[in-house]
Amino acid sequence: MKVDVVYATAGAQDCVALELPENATAADALRVSGLVAAWKLDLGCLVLALHGRAVPADARLAEGDRLELLLPVTADPKDVRRRRASLRSRGRATASGTPTTNR
How far is CA 100 from the centre of its chain? Predict the structure, then answer.
């Protein structure tokens, strides 16, 4: 069966197309893809997902699946929005969250 394994960051993306046996798991695809070694990823921190939904390493794959290698969330999205809103109330905020002033 054909599956894709994908790893992406803000600056780069890597997608490996694989041909795996019918009973392959997410762990099998991860190992065969070589992305962990290529990107020097920490297996203990990775989250595996199929089409955007987290799955365990022993999840069975199906034809056409896209296995995504995700890094853990480092900031609470709600906190980030609150900080941006607070900055906007004091001055204009940029996309990075740093305030700017109009002169």
Answer: 30
Residue given tokens 């940029």 in the structure block: 94
State the Cα–Cα distance between residues 98 and 34, nearest whole angstrom: 38
3-state secondary structure of 47: strand
Q: Which range of residues forms the domain containing residue 36?
A: 2-70
Cα 66 to chain centroid distance, Å, stands at 12
- Name residues whose C-beta falls within 8 Å of residue 69's C-beta, 6 or more positions apart in sequence: 5, 6, 7, 30, 35, 36, 41, 46, 47, 48
**pLDDT in the model for residue 86:** 84
**In this structure, are 13 and 56 located in the same domain?**
yes
**Up-side HSE of residue 76: CA atoms within 13 Å toward CB?**
4
Q: How much is the pTM?
A: 0.71
Could you give the number of structural domains in the chain? Answer: 2
Please report which helix (H) or strand (E) contains residue 16, including its range.
Answer: strand 13-19
Going by C-alpha positions, the residue among 23, 13, 103 that lies closest to residue 63 is 23
